[in-house]
Write a structure and sequence with these properties.
The complex is a heterodimer of chains A (327) and B (296). Chain A has 13 helices and 14 strands. Chain A has 327 residues and is α/β, with parallel strands linked by helices. In chain B, strand 1 (262-263) and strand 2 form a beta hairpin. The chains are: A alpha/beta (327), B mainly alpha (296). The A-B interface holds A 4, 31-34, 54-56, 58, 76-77, 79-81, 84, 86, 88-95, 99, 102-104, 106-111, 114, 117-118, 121, 154-156, 186-189 and B 1-4, 7, 10-11, 13-20, 22-23, 26, 29-30, 32-34, 37, 40-41, 44-45, 110, 113-115, 117-124, 296.
């Protein structure tokens, strides 16, 4: 950034579609060199936010600066300084990998003298050098995504936006995409701004913002967020689960539920609580496990639902009802 | 960068790119690459190249021969002129029209498959993208039309290099105007199906009202008026005039088969027809650019 300022600076950013408010006055900033994650269920406003930062959508209110430039007033300057990888592929399947990159280089005005070297370099980085002469049609989903990441980097952007970069990919490919992103951070001086609804991926970020219904409900490092939850998750198997739940409520004032075949509840300092549990619970305990809070728990504590339920609630009421009926 | 102040200089071999400010030169590069992509795609798609030939050849050889027969057996004034020769310029125009529309349709395709987004987020002017598309589409259509022109012998049109060049040049201008029309339509349409539906709806009347298949003289007034409002009329007529200039047809035949386009009795000169086509092309492209700008 010219003045060493923030890579992304957002203040009171709002987007309305008709009566619906998709983004409700959010505020945050991303430091240069950071991997910043936007976490939330589908429909939380993540993609709308990223589209405004990428100059694809005009904000209804508030300001956003990317790489030190205003996304509305200095749209072209912002565009020159960002790289984009969208949820849906935006490659031309009829062209080869190399031709897709060359198209991008010309469109972004990359100086001719460095184009070929730079294309070779980004192709190497994502491991597609050997396939450069093949048509993109013949690529697998993971290869396409890698090519898109290479393309997003081609013009050496200051900020790389990745909108759900691993959605729809199998776990192995997801892991390899993350490997590339990590290498990328080593090789290039770049800020990465990404959205995801995979909890495990959010762990890779330096900081994450949790978004729910158009608002940022939490923003911190993954560790701090998890520490902030404070309560560990205790799971026990007992001889009589129903009696155990009732007794836990009576004796300790804790709300326990059946989850995946075990009585589950949250409590501060779980390890220290276990001896008390054994001493005071009338129902015989067969097994016990204590887990530190996960980002899932973080999400739960801020939004009151798991990310999967929140997603189902946003899109598919029927599925929630079905699940409720099965319980 | 706060977090990497101590980071070493970029690893050896890292190529740094600094993208320059936007300039006319940059926009021209964008026009060129959009155009180049059209050519690559056209070349890759051999099926399209071949299928684009089927219809014109059908018109020329099957319809042309069949109708010639009809005229020869009747007492028509066909004389020593082949009806195939008459419809040859029309068939050239039709072939160009279909290819040009197809090229313009690729914008809708690009939108469906996401590639349009890659172009629209680039730091480059929308006009560069639209101009590249229009010139690329016109170029591809002209290549397709040139293949038809090479069949001139089958229609009794002489292989005069000057005539061939003239035909190719005129086809390029017509193709440019038609691509402009197609891109303007494509700017608003989201699905391939509706685009081709609409195109079909627009192209058939344009073809039938253009003088591609029958001379435009002696028509009932309503039909005559309609043909004069059809832009394609002004793209077909110069082609036919060029062909007839290289034949030695009797004045009577010339009057019947190459009457030119008249406005209330006044014969519109070829240069004016060409100007009309070019202006229309530029105008339609202008509207297309405005539409893409507004879509922001």
């Amino acid at each position: 950034m010219p003045d060493g300022g923030d890579a992304v600076e957002v203040d009171g950013l709002t987007k309305r579609f008709g009566d619906a408010e998709a983004v409700r006055g959010i505020e945050f900033s991303v430091r240069p060199g950071e991997v910043f994650g936007f976490l939330g269920p589908n429909g939380a406003g993540k993609s709308t936010t990223i589209n405004m930062l990428c100059t694809l959508l005009r904000p209804s209110g508030g300001t956003a600066r990317v790489a030190g430039h205003d996304v509305v007033a200095e749209r072209d300057t912002v565009r020159r300084n960002i790289g984009l990888v969208f949820q849906d592929t935006t490659l031309d399947g009829y062209l080869t990998g190399e031709q897709n990159l060359r198209f991008h280089a010309e469109l972004y005005g990359v100086p001719r003298s460095v184009t070929t070297d730079r294309i070779g370099q980004v192709l190497e980085m994502v491991g597609l050098w050997d396939r450069r002469r093949d048509r993109v049609q013949t690529f697998s989903g993971g290869m396409k995504r890698r090519l898109e990441i290479a393309r997003g980097l081609l013009h050496s952007p200051r900020v790389l936006f990745l909108d759900e970069p691993t959605v729809g990919l199998d776990p192995q490919t997801r892991a390899s995409i993350w490997e590339y992103i990590r290498q990328l951070r080593e090789a290039e001086e770049i800020t990465i701004f990404m959205t995801t609804h995979y909890m495990d991926e959010a762990e890779y970020c330096d900081r994450i913002a949790i978004m729910d219904s158009g608002r940022i409900v939490a923003l911190d490092t993954p560790e701090a967020l998890k520490a902030g939850v404070g309560e560990d998750r205790v799971r026990i198997q007992t001889a009589d689960d129903r009696a155990a739940i009732a007794e836990i409520a009576d004796r300790f004032g804790l709300e326990a539920v059946m989850s995946e075949g075990a009585v589950t509840f949250r409590v501060v300092a779980g390890e220290a609580f276990v001896p008390r549990l054994f001493a005071e619970l009338g129902v015989p305990i067969r097994s016990v496990s204590v887990a530190r809070p996960s980002l899932d728990d973080v999400f739960m504590s801020f939004t009151g639902s798991t990310i999967r339920d929140a997603e189902a609630g946003a899109g598919d009421h029927m599925r929630v009802m079905m699940r409720a009926m099965r319980r | 960068m706060t977090t990497r102040t101590s980071a070493p200089a970029p690893a050896a071999g890292v190529v740094r790119v600094s993208v320059p400010e936007r300039s006319v030169r940059h926009d021209l590069r964008a026009v060129r690459i959009v155009l180049h992509r059209e050519l690559i795609r056209f070349w890759r798609d051999k099926v399209r190249l071949v299928s684009g030939l089927v219809q014109p050849v059908l018109w020329l050889l099957v319809m042309g021969t069949g109708l010639s027969n009809l005229m020869a057996s009747g007492s028509g004034p066909a004389g020593d002129i082949d009806l195939k020769t008459f419809i040859f310029p029309g068939v050239c125009a039709m072939s160009v029209m279909f290819t040009a529309m197809f090229s313009a349709g690729s914008i809708v395709w690009d939108r469906e498959f996401g590639f349009l987004r890659e172009m629209l987020v680039a730091p480059v002017s929308r006009s560069a993208i639209v101009i590249g598309k229009c010139i690329g589409g016109a170029f591809v259509a002209t290549v397709q039309g040139t293949v038809i022109v090479l069949l001139a012998g089958l229609a009794g049109v002489p292989y005069d290099p000057l005539l061939l060049l003239e035909l190719v040049g005129l086809m390029f201008l017509g193709a440019f105007a038609l691509t402009g029309f197609g891109v303007m339509m494509a700017a608003r349409i989201r699905s391939m199906q509706s685009f081709f539906g609409l195109m079909q709806m627009a192209m058939m009347p344009m073809m039938f009202l253009s003088g591609a298949l029958y001379p435009l003289n002696g028509l009932p007034t309503w039909l005559s008026v309609l043909t004069r409002f059809n832009p394609l009329t002004y793209a077909v007529d110069p082609l036919r005039q060029a062909v007839f200039r290289h034949l030695d047809a009797s004045p009577a035949l010339e009057r019947t088969f190459n009457p030119g386009v008249t406005w209330n009795g006044w014969v519109v000169p070829v240069w004016l027809e060409v100007v009309i086509v070019v202006l229309m092309g530029v105008g339609l492209m202008g509207v297309a650019i405005l539409e893409f700008r507004r879509a922001d």
